[in-house]
Amino acid sequence: MNLARHLLRTARVYPDGTALARGDTPCATWRELARRAAGLAAGLRERLNLAPGDRVALIMKNCPTYVEALYGCWIAGLAAVPVNAKLHPKEIAYILDHSGARVVLATDNLLDAIANAQREAGTAARIIDVAGAEYRALAAAEPQDVADTQADDLAWLFYTSGTTGRPKGAMLTHRNVLAATLSYFVDVDTIAAGDSIVHAAPMSHGSGLYIMAHVAMGATQVIPESGQFDPAEIFALWRHWRGVTMFAAPTMVKRLVDHPDSGTADSANLKTIVYGGGPMYVADLKAALARFGQKFVQIYGQGESPMTITALSRARHAETDHPRYDARLGSVGVAQSVVEVRIADAGDRTLPAGEPGEILVRGDSVMKGYWRDEEASTRTLRGGWLHTGDVGTFDEDGFLTLKDRSKDLIISGGSNIYPREVEEVLLRHPAVAEASVVGAADPEWGESVVAFVVLRDGHTAAADELDRLCLDCIARFKRPKSYRFVASLPKNNYGKVLKTELRAWLKMNA
């Protein structure tokens, strides 16, 4: 099965429907998109002499051409390597070298940075401006038929964020991405022809992984005019398009709620916000539900099992009378339909409900392995299960609650402390905008708990106030031993807090 066949089917069924739009302006029908993607495929194969299985890097800010380029690669039997456009040039150079990409399709704002990075790394992929004459000539080639790929052929080479060491390339096959696509309809949401998805998050990652489900059903792919996330622009797009879905990191949801226009924003056309990619604290989620209504679905996944480990459905968000409602809001939901999920100890033995351990996953959405890293593949997929490195617990009803990454666990005086539990409490204070908890070396206890706190503008809070709050809500041994008030928290390009940097800062200032 080649994923591109969904595009051709949609083009036959809804030829004149709007496939792509920039802001509120349509820019391609399904017929036009399919024709250009098939032309690009022929251009890549015939004019650039790419062979089935070759890698093509997509290094673009969000733009309508992204969808065309992605499907052009698949029609040609090539593997796409979507790269976050906000990465440092050295990170981009590493991915180009490691993936062996022969061609880079890029937006014009990134051409110089990519060329400079390649010179430093000694790589020589051909760089093509997707707004330039060479690209237009490729896309104008006589369209080719969809390549006859196998289910386990590489479709998407997904590079992890690399917050610890070099990023690894998760090999996502046509089978993996198809499983994730079909799971969307069972576990996340329904899509009707003429609905829309607004790509405000990077199309190289979470938002881009929902391109396929929306293409399959004939829903318009809407790219903000700015090519990025701007709450006021998002509110305007909600008013214009119908049946709107968007993927958002928790930080984006919080920015939507906190924006001055959110109280008057017309969300009648907003169908679904799928959130994930980091911890969504219960207080923030309740504020979002109060502001925009029961339009939220949570997913938990990794690049190694894209968007497809667990889901907390819209219906679960609406069960306000459930006796464990808050606990369920704080969970990441139940296992999605295409995977098995279990909690295991260090010996990979399954643990009972309530016992914390590593989250293990297997199913058709789980990656084939890591590109050019057999050792990491064997270690991560041992026993046929993806070892996520995340710690969690199941309750008796099958709801999974994430504790933390195993590397973020704090062990103080022999007791395990999960930072997220402490962070959830700190965020209950009305003056606290953000909080991140890490462990600091302690000669007596092994590690002590340190909280980095960002206060809301115009608000104050003393350490003893936060300490009293923690003592009222969690065990004494879990409360922070010190509080560091900071202007902001260090984050990567996906909005995740870099606890490695916080720990490094503590070491330097010990």
Please provide a written account of the structure.
The termini are far apart. The strands form six sheets. The chain has a nine-stranded mixed sheet with strand order 2-1-10-9-11-12-13-14-15. α1 runs antiparallel to α2. The longest helix has 18 residues, at 30-47. α10 links the parallel β11 (244-248) and β12 (270-275). The protein contains 17 helices and 24 strands. The protein folds into two domains: 5-394, ANL, N-terminal domain (Rossmann fold); 409-508, GMP Synthetase, Chain A, domain 3, CATH 3.30.300. It is of the alpha/beta class and 510 residues long.
Short account of what is shown:
This protein is of the alpha/beta class and 510 residues long. The strands form six sheets. Strands 2-1-10-9-11-12-13-14-15 form a nine-stranded mixed sheet. It has a four-stranded parallel sheet with strand order 4-3-5-6, with helices on both faces. A four-stranded antiparallel sheet has the order 16-17-18-19. The longest helix is centred in the N-terminal third of the chain and has 18 residues, at 30-47.
